Inverse folding.
């Protein structure tokens, strides 16, 4: 089944430009808070987009007045009831471990998707939301946006990616530590200064419009090149420079033989028109 024809309860999918998917968190009346459906559908959606040859870039934004209020408190009540039904610590731990890993996998599905993922954040991006966006490749936000590693305020050590990814996204360990220990708001200007986002917009409409143009530009390039680039960037982030070089040498010894390399190189060298690349 193509991803475009899938129906989700908590996500809205559109294809506004060729090969560009727009995914929106779509629980605006619940401030896009993460309930079980949202966790599950994010993973399903990004896993599907990963293998969908009609998708080359994903733009992720949110419907309603803010990006997300983070973990849905009401879903925690259900969890409390499930735990209360188990007397033994090992059985309760099994439930919790499976749940945490499921949530981690949901966030990581953005990173595992080999198509570039661009996150567009407006207003509040709290708790689980910051975990989500740090698993994306590109982040833009509006001037009114703010970010909070809010877990500390609900008595939790953040456990679904932000403590692992945020230090790799922003340059200052001191800033990451301050944010994680205090839960304070990081505003849009600080977010740009720190490198969490690299563009600011005065409103959401302008942000979405320009991001879709940038996505269209990426989608016009060779999918072999773009997907290989994402794989190499993420591999290199987690390995030494030499290991990263070995990885891309191994990768490109195959991919340089692709028709995309020949067609794109000839077009560049001859100032010819942009080639139409086959689906991948
Ligand atoms: C194993 C777990 C792994 C995952 C961990 C994740 C952890 C986290 O995400 S920690 C962060 C949790 N979220 C929060 O602490 C945010 C709480 N909400 C707020 O601070 C404010 O609501 C917010 C700033 C988002 C918006 O403020 P605003 O004044 O615009 O609206 P409110 O009047 O406060 O809220 C409107 C209604 O929405 C309900 N609501 C808000 N947040 C949540 C939420 N996270 N879950 C469920 N419901 C939420 C709020 O109760 C209001 O409802 P009602 O009174 O019925 O209108």
């Amino acid at each position: 089944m193509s991803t475009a024809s899938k129906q989700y309860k908590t996500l809205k999918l559109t294809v506004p430009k060729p090969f560009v998917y727009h995914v929106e968190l779509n629980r605006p009346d619940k401030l896009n808070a993460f309930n079980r459906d949202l966790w599950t559908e994010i993973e399903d959606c990004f896993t599907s987009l990963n293998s969908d040859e009609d998708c080359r870039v994903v733009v992720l934004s949110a419907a309603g007045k803010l990006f997300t209020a983070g973990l849905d408190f009401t879903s925690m009540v259900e969890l409390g009831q499930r735990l209360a039904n188990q007397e033994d610590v090992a059985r309760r731990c099994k439930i919790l471990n499976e749940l945490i890993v499921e949530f981690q996998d949901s966030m990581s599905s953005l990173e595992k998707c080999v198509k570039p993922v661009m996150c567009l954040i407006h207003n509040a991006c709290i708790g689980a939301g910051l975990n989500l966006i740090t698993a994306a490749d590109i982040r833009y936000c509006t001037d009114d946006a703010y970010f909070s590693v809010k877990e500390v305020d609900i008595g939790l050590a953040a456990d679904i990616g932000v403590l692992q990814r945020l230090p790799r996204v922003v340059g200052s360990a001191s800033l990451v530590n301050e944010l994680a220990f205090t839960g304070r708001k990081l505003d849009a200007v600080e977010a740009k200064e720190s490198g969490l986002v690299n563009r600011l917009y005065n409103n959401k409409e302008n942000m979405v419009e320009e991001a879709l143009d940038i996505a269209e530009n990426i989608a016009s390039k060779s999918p072999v090149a773009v997907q290989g680039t994402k794989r190499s960037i993420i591999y290199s982030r987690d390995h030494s420079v030499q290991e990263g070089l070995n990885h891309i040498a191994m990768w490109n010894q195959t991919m340089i033989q692709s028709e995309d390399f020949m067609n794109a190189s000839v077009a560049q060298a001859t100032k010819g028109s942009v080639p139409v690349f086959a689906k991948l």
About this structure: The chain has a mean pLDDT of 97. The first helix runs from residue 36 to 51.
